[in-house]
Amino acid sequence: MAKILISRDGVLEQTVQLTRERMTIGRHRHNDIVLEQPTVSGEHAVITTILDDSFLEDLYSTNGTFVNGHRIGKHYLQNKDQIKLARYRIEFVADGIRPLTGAALSPAALPHATFAPTAASLPPPARIEVLNGSNAGKRLELAKPQTSLGRSGVQVVVISRGPAGYAAAHTEGDRVPLLNGTPLGPQPQPLADGDVLELSGTRMAFRSH
């Protein structure tokens, strides 16, 4: 789970885990993350987390939101990004790729996955598109060799990208995800364009075109 480290005048004041899909930052008390400083706008910015990715968006603040020295409107957060809001310095710390452990994720069990592939050997990046809920229409590019979807300890699916194409496997949690309405097991299942994954009620379509 990603987190942010909030400092002011060189002193760490808060460590906040990004546990919710949408977390607002601002001076007013109703925000998820309250920064009590006059030059912080009432509703200054928001961090939205979709699957394993987090995005920072400025909410038309008076003094702006800066990442790594550049003023931003919306920014895809990466590990160790430095955010500046008025006198506050905020470091974004990603949770990183979850360790791929267990027999289901060993190289022998993933014959179609390449753990150190060359760019030329991989298929073009595909996408996952959210079909329902508040994030309907949002897309996540599957550019990594492995992409984790879901919540650690609850339900995790890993999508592998190898020379033979894409495959999905259920790797963690007691809740069984569905692939086209059928339970997805620990053995990798090839994905085709239009296939639908369901995790904890969220339906996502695999798009290869």
UniProtKB/TrEMBL annotation:
Would you indicate the residue range of the signal peptide? none
State the InterPro entries in the record. Answer: Cell_Proc_Reg/RNA_Proc, FHA_dom, SMAD_FHA_dom_sf
Highest taxon, organism lineage: Bacteria
Q: What Pfam families is this protein classified in?
A: FHA
Q: Provide the FHA domain boundaries.
A: 23-72
Gene3D superfamilies in alphabetical order: 2.60.200.20
Q: Indicate what this protein is called per its UniProt record.
A: FHA domain-containing protein
Q: What is the lineage of its organism?
A: Bacteria, Pseudomonadati, Pseudomonadota, Betaproteobacteria, Burkholderiales
